[in-house]
Amino acid sequence: MVETTPEEIQNALVGYIEENFLVKFGADGFFGNTNYFEAGIVDSYGMIELFNFLETTWGLALTDEDMLSPSLSSVDGVVALVSERM
Amino acid sequence: MHEFSTLRTLRRCTRCVLPETFPGISFDEDGVCSVCRTAGPVESRGGSPALEEILDQAKSKNAPYDALLAFSGGKDSTFALWLLRKRFGLRVLAITVDNGFLSEGAIKNCRQVCDALEVDHQFFRPAKTFMDRMYATSLTGSMHPKAAIKRASAVCNSCISLINTHMLNTALDMGVSIVAGGYLAGQVPENLSASKVDPKVLGVARKTQDRLYAQALGEGWASYFQLRESDRTDDAPREIWIVNPLLVVEYTEAEALETIGTLGWARPTDTGANSSNCLLNDLGIASHVRRYGFHPYVAEMAALVRKGAITRDEALERLFAEPNRSEVKTLLARWGLGEDDL
Prior knowledge:
The complex is a heterodimer. Helices cover about 55% and strands about 0% of the residues of chain A. Chain A is mainly alpha-helical. Chain A is built from four helices and no strands. Chain A is globular, with a radius of gyration of 12 Å. In chain B, about 45% of the residues lie in helices and about 10% in strands. Chain B has 13 helices and six strands. Chain B has helices at about 35-40, 50-60, 75-85, 105-115, 130-140, 155-175, 200-215, 220-225, 255-260, 280-290, 300-305, 310-320, 325-335; strands at about 65-70, 90-95, 120-125, 180, 195, 240-245. In chain B, strands 3-2-1-4-6-5 form a six-stranded mixed β-sheet, sandwiched between helices. The longest helix of chain B has 21 residues, at about 155-175. Chain B is globular, with a radius of gyration of 20 Å. The interface of A and B includes residues 41, 42 and 55 of A.
């Protein structure tokens, strides 16, 4: 079942980032409004993996404009974007 | 610090070979790891056309080549080159980045294979002083994000990053729309079989890494690590397809070796059990195991086992092959380092 409430979306995304990028939410400089690219948590390979996760988990079709938008750079931003599009 | 001998005693997935020391791993009651349980069929990035369709579209573009291939002379990139040239019929420019530690056997393989496949070939050899500084800093510092340790050793991560930047910049300069590699699952994201990227988008994720490289490596870093067009201000798209055919093509390693053998490829004898081109490999392995307690190639080996390309026993044999300690010490001494510096 696809997670659709903001809390479910956040839990799924945070779980994915914690497992794949070896950081703990609420610690390690990783919070809801943290730009995980600028914080060095997610590199360019990680970006490709992360965007694939977003597209396959929630059926999004991300455009280049989306990918350049700050919305995809933080947990809070992704939760808002996914909630809006679901 | 971890001794290499401890690798043999680690608890490992009963299906692949990932060990208990691999970051984020867990095992179920049957001893199957969390990666095996969640692994699914590999697909290109959501919404992308199949690999063949992408490559067919690239052929029609008015560019000097259909694709550039990062060609190390090793078995994987050699098989990738054969696939692109013979199975997909592409006009390929093979580019070898000579890091200063390529085996003579690998260099010979580069020439032999490119002659056999009738492809154009370029060597790019970055300045020795910079490469020495890059490798020494990679071994003693923290130049990469945490998760990079799952993919490769520190020296390999730096080298791969340099190679990838060179390939992308060359593609942008030449107007070629496909950059290909012989990377395997575990080395790169599994959905990187065919993924379209805009340098401006990649630049978003590379900014922090660029700062790290600038601080760590100093003068000259931008020549090798800065992605052109990542900070352009116009909106005109510059899209490049990153393609790794080995992620989706069905094959066994035995079949691949037989195929490239027909091109005159021969395994070098001086690169260790886990490489067929680079003399730094044993050093990368030794340093990684010492620091993190797992083999830098274990994710790659695990992925090959899951794919059926090699057996679990074959994977373990390679993972347990001890690095040549004498050669490791000689390399470290080159940069004024000892094993205790790792």
